[in-house]
């Protein structure tokens, strides 16, 4: 139901960050997804769970260099696939039992897409001579739940063997490597201090 300003409650809730306690922080989304999936398999009320990505970054990975032959080849493949779909529709509703409409549609689609792709690439004038894929990634992912069930969620995640350690779990004490450190003790006197000094031999002067 809309309010006076014309905004629905569900839309406003989707624009705010969910609130709760963090029960786990993971380096990848797949690890966070695995944790939530484990809670769902354990009959946990996952409708109270949310995954929040921190420090979002846009990553663009360059996949190759563009050139006129490559643009023409990619455009021809796209046009052929589009022509195949159109030809299949014409054959299905046209009642023609031959494959001639499909082949002609694929040829026309490839030609038109090649022309369109080459012309569009020419208008760029070398401003973007490479292909790439873009995605938004986060440096870490927090799994948060409602505070009323946070303790139960932490207890369940402690049974899940993963590289990331759930939040709230006590860190294990560091293992000692090498001999144990000695306690502070007062400095001891060297043994030579308790012995009487050695007298040098007496040498008699010649007459």
Which percent bin holds the helix content?
25-40%
CATH architecture of the domain at 16-63 and 138-157: 2-Layer Sandwich
CATH fourth-tier homologous superfamily of the domain at 16-63 and 138-157: HD domain like
SS summary, helix count: 5
Provide mean pLDDT, rounded. Answer: 78
Low-confidence stretches: 168-181
Written account of the structure:
This protein is α+β, with helices and mostly antiparallel strands and 207 residues long. Among the domains are: 16-63 and 138-157, Alpha-Beta Plaits (2-Layer Sandwich); 67-128, no CATH class. It contains 5 helices and 3 strands, in the order αβαβααβα. It is elongated and about 65 Å long. The N and C termini lie far apart (130 Å).
């Amino acid at each position: 139901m809309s309010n006076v300003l014309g905004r629905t409650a569900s839309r406003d809730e989707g624009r705010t960050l969910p609130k709760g306690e963090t029960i786990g922080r993971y380096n990848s989304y797949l690890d966070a997804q695995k944790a939530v999936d484990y809670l769902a398999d354990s009959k946990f009320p996952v409708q109270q769970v949310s995954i929040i990505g921190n420090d979002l970054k846009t990553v663009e990975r360059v996949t190759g260099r563009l050139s006129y032959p490559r643009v023409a080849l990619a455009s021809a493949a796209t046009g052929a696939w589009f022509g195949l779909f159109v030809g299949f529709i014409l054959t299905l509703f046209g009642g023609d039992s031959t494959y001639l409409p499909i082949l002609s549609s694929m040829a026309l689609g490839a030609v038109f897409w090649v022309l369109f792709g080459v012309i569009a690439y020419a208008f760029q004038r070398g401003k973007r001579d490479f292909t790439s894929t873009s995605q938004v990634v986060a440096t870490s992912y927090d799994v948060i739940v409602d505070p009323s069930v946070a303790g139960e969620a932490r207890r369940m995640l402690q049974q899940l063997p993963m590289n990331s350690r759930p939040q709230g779990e006590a860190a294990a004490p560091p293992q000692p490597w090498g001999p144990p450190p000695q306690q502070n003790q007062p400095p001891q006197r060297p043994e030579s201090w308790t012995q009487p000094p050695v007298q040098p031999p007496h040498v008699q002067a010649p007459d």
